[in-house]
Structure formats: structure tokens, C-alpha cells
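hey so u asked for the seq, here:
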Amino acid sequence: MSLISPAYAQAGGAPQGSGIFELVMIVVMVAVFYFLLIRPQQKRAKEHQQLVSELAKGDEVITAGGILGKITKVDENYAVVEIADNMEIKLQKHSIQSTLPKGTLKSI
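ran it, C-alpha cells below
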């Protein structure tokens, strides 16, 4: 005598079109992720790369840490930013978050 009865497969199972429906749902989910997550992130990265490549002496900037300053020197990988009179810091160019309109620092 067995405590577990044998399980038999039932005929009929899943409907025929379910495999195609699941494939379509996967494609739809990938498309949603692309348009809502991946594409906007790539656009922001491209805009930041353009901003970094166009940095020049005299630009007023905000760093990723929130420091405001004026660029006094730029080379390939670094920028020297004046944050106060006679006080400069050397930063990686990629740590600069955005540029400010000219004259913004004078009003602060």
C-alpha cells in the first residue's frame, strides 16, 4: 500500500496559442524597458559627455557635490575651479554636473 498516489498527465493542457502570447508579452516588456529606462539614460549620458567636452576657461559650473565655481584652467581630464578668492580646487571634468549662465556667481 502506497501513501502517495500516482499523478497522471491530463490531456488538453495549455491552449495552443499560449506560447505565441508569452513571446509577444516578453517583447512588449523589453520595449517598455527600452523606452522608459534605457533610452532616456543614454540620452542624459550623451548630453553630459557633450557638456564635459565643451568646458572652457571662464565657465561657471556646479559640481556633483554642489560646489559652485569658475573654471580657471582645463586640460584633457581635469579642470581647476576657483571656488573663492585665491582658493582653487582640481576636479575631474566628469564630476562637473552643469554649467551656469554667465554672471551667476557674481549675484551670489
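Residues 18-107 form a domain with the SH3 type barrels. fold (CATH 2.30.30). The longest helix spans residues 18-53.
lmk if thats what u needed
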